[in-house]
Amino acid sequence: MKKPIIILTGPTAVGKTKASIELAKKIGGEIISADSMQVYKYMDIGSAKIRSEEMQGVPHYLIDELEPDEEFHVVRFQEMAKQAMEKIYANGHIPIVVGGTGFYIQALLYDIDFTESNEDSSYREELERLAKEKGAQYLHEELRKVDEKSAETIHANNVKRVIRALEFFKQTGQKISEHNETERTKESPYDFCYFVLTDDRKLLYDRINLRVDQMVQDGLLQEVQSLKERGYTKDMVSMQGLGYKEILDYLDGDCTLEEAIYILKRDTRHFAKRQLTWFRRERDVIWIDKSQYDHNEAKVVDVIITKIQERIPYICLK
């Protein structure tokens, strides 16, 4: 018998955290973060990390588990999330995967295999050198030559994923986009409900702008300065995250604070747009438009629970 899993995702600032807590309390859930930044310690404000008092006693996993100089990628996410799921099932509870990193969610939900290719550190080092010498855009164009579809879906600044795609092509002769597409057609090994929260675009963008202002007010600059003082540098994966690279540029004198805030707001809005594009491509997704429920959190959670009971009737309310 397949085990149950609930996915609750959506663009940044849509309100996943609050809904996830209420849902977890009602169905006996424990939460696994599918966020590429909240896994890092000391990175609280810029990642909009849930605070312990907001958790309301609901166990959370993949929050504050890694040092900022450690690498976190989809394979590591899979490993850590599966370990968390085993603990949650052992507790007799339901895993609720919450976060906006669609690629991670897809990898977990469909148990996508990333292990086909062998490591080739010399080629990776060569690609990393090219990225440093000629820039991320150059490497991205190299990817476009061999795998246009991947180039369309992987942002040029996501150098790690660009390198991964080029590595995969060199080692297997197959486009990673085709490999991932094949993997995506697999049936999920879980009984799942995959919810995507969404909202009126203008409201969402306004909320993003307000959130950035609040982050600055809450001490984002001091947080990034503290990370710098701990020795964490902009070439680390963690420090490339939204909210960190922009403020680092300001602290390094590469732009004014006003410019950094403007860029952060703009890039976060663009990120939200890309997230929505990703989720539209996914299979078996249940869209929940908050504007249809007057932005009433209780109504939204009730709709989610109704859908869960339709699809996974053995999940009982607490």
Automatic annotation (TrEMBL):
Keywords linked to the UniProt accession: ATP-binding, Magnesium, Nucleotide-binding, Transferase, tRNA processing
Record HAMAP family: IPP_trans
Catalytic class of the enzyme: transferase
Source species of the chain: [Clostridium] nexile
GO MF terms, alphabetically ordered: ATP binding; tRNA dimethylallyltransferase activity
Function noted in UniProt: Catalyzes the transfer of a dimethylallyl group onto the adenine at position 37 in tRNAs that read codons beginning with uridine, leading to the formation of N6-(dimethylallyl)adenosine (i(6)A).
Family: Belongs to the IPP transferase family.
Family matches, as PANTHER family: TRNA DIMETHYLALLYLTRANSFERASE
Interaction with substrate tRNA: region residues: 35-38
Coiled-coil annotated spans: none
A GO BP entry: tRNA modification
EC number(s) stated in the UniProt entry for this protein: 2.5.1.75
Keyword Nucleotide-binding found: yes
Catalysed conversion reaction: adenosine(37) in tRNA + dimethylallyl diphosphate = N(6)-dimethylallyladenosine(37) in tRNA + diphosphate
InterPro entries reported in the protein's UniProt record: Dimethylallyltransferase (IPR039657), IPT (IPR018022), P-loop_NTPase (IPR027417)
UniProt keyword annotation of Transmembrane helix present: no
Assembly, per entry: Monomer.
Site note Interaction with substrate tRNA, residues: T101, R124
Protein name in the entry: tRNA dimethylallyltransferase
Residue numbers binding substrate: T12, A13, V14, G15, K16, T17
Cofactor(s) required for function per UniProt: Mg(2+)
